[in-house]
Design brief:
The chain is mainly alpha-helical. 67% of the residues lie in helices and 0% in strands.
């Protein structure tokens, strides 16, 4: 679970504090995963915002937001 991006910051620190430690490559893979996950989240949110700002006053379902993130 420590390599799944939403959980990496806390779990990797907990694993590193253990006496057994972690292999040297795992913190770097975790950091890369978090950065990629954050960039993808910002990209998807910006696409949703771009479409939703034109629809002010109307509500959107979760399925519509996923479609906006994929198609734009």
């Amino acid at each position: 679970m420590s390599l799944v991006p939403p959980f990496t910051p806390i779990l990797m620190l907990l694993r590193q504090a253990m006496p057994t430690g972690v292999p040297a490559w795992q913190p770097w893979v975790g950091l890369t995963g978090v950065l990629v996950f954050a960039a993808a989240t910002v990209w998807a949110a910006s696409r949703i915002f771009r479409v939703a700002i034109l629809m002010h006053g109307q509500t959107a379902a979760a399925g519509e937001m996923v479609r906006w993130a994929m198609k734009g």
